[in-house]
Amino acid sequence: MQQSSKYEFVSSAKLPTRWGKFRIHGFVETETQQEHIAITYGEWQPDDIITIRIHSECLTGDALFSTRCDCGFQLEKAMKEVVAEGKGVILYLRQEGRGIGLLNKIRAYHLQDQGYDTVEANEHLGFDADLRDYAICKTMLDTLNVKHVRLMTNNPKKIAALKSMGINVIERLPINEGITEDNRYYIKTKTNKLGHEFDQHLFNEQEDEDDS
């Protein structure tokens, strides 16, 4: 198991789910005691190319099934994809609301209810649009013996972060999942202001459905 002075592996256990039997691995940031997890499916050799997702915690989407974001949809899609492939990793990072925390996220939601977009709301509260940090991913992937990845993401910042850590990103796998009437404007804002890479035809398809 790989360790660093900032991040530590804690323990692993079985994690049976609706989609398959995963394993859950706990990690901690030593200075802040912030906890993070990885869930893995299947087995591999260190030089294998592994499909992974870096998923930031979203209580409202992941656990409460909110449709005002696409997070819960994407997490479910990622879990199904790694099971279908036979092996894979999801790094689940505890950085709610792109790093501003749950209560501030609710404050940001309140501002969005008044007409702010997701970036404007964060900035109105005094935060950057995206405060997330991916440094722990290196320790997590080293611990799991993953060096070469196919990354499920629409966010180019995650690709850049992994590459800067020496992780070999072989391919980006789009994860265009969960576009709804409730979150379409939110996703367009992520595309236009944060550089996320969604296919425009997905918005057009949703608009066609709304007009039918």
General description of the model:
Helices cover about 40% and strands about 25% of the residues. It has about 210 residues and is of the alpha/beta class. It has one domain (about 5-95, about 130-205): Rossmann fold, CATH 3.40.50. Strands 1-2-3-5-4-6-7 form a seven-stranded mixed β-sheet, sandwiched between helices. About 30% of the residues are buried. The model has no long low-confidence stretch (mean pLDDT about 90).
Shape: globular
Please mark out the parts with pLDDT under 50 across 5 or more consecutive residues, or reply none: none
Number of structurally distinct domains:
1
Strand order across the largest sheet:
1-2-3-5-4-6-7
For the record, what is the CATH homologous superfamily label? GTP cyclohydrolase II
Q: Roughly how much helix do the residues carry, as a percent range?
A: 25-40%
What order do the helices and strands follow? EEEEHHEHHHHEHEHH
Strands, count: 7
Give me the CATH fold name.
Rossmann fold
CATH structural class = Alpha Beta
Number of helices: 9
The residue-averaged pLDDT reads 90
Please give the alpha-carbon distance between the first and last residues: 55 Å
What proportion strand? 15-25%
**Which structural class should the secondary elements be placed in?**
alpha/beta
Biggest sheet descriptor? 7 strands, mixed
Oligomer: single chain
Give me the Rg, rounded.
17 Å
By CATH, the architecture is named: 3-Layer(aba) Sandwich
